[in-house]
Hints:
- By secondary structure, this protein is mainly alpha-helical.
- It has two domains: 2-38, no CATH class; 49-129.
- It has five helices and two strands.
- It has helices at residues 25-38, 49-59, 66-80, 85-99, 105-118; strands at 2-6, 12-17.
- It has a two-stranded antiparallel sheet with strand order 1-2.
- It comes from Brachionus calyciflorus.
- This is MULE transposase domain-containing protein.
Amino acid sequence: MIAGIIDFDRHFHPIAVAICSRETALDYEFFFRSIFKNNKSYVPKIMCWAHAERATTKKLLFIKNPRVRDNITQDLYALQSSYSQPKFNIGYKLFKEKWKSVEGMRKFFDDYFEREWISLTNQGWFEGLAPGYPSTNNA
């Protein structure tokens, strides 16, 4: 696998190479996470909270008890108001620990939430990532 950047003249510049016996989604995920973790100048992008909330709420419809679903959503709102990356990380760990025993939630965390909203790509939906900026881009 080769990763690189393309400049304004549309020339490709390789920045990383990985040798692997097969190229699965997990291989690519490991490859790109490693690049992000080792890039000290990486600046995460801000993600619209309204889009994250709507998408997550739809995914939580598998929980039949509306009271449990509402409580999970309330905790998600509390997590969104984290004012720093370390607080968000601790909050997410506690959020997951609290709800993973609810039927289907372990699969929800592993198959959806962590890949979509906790990974380095879309993690920018909490307040502390960009203080002073709007939480949503909806007018």
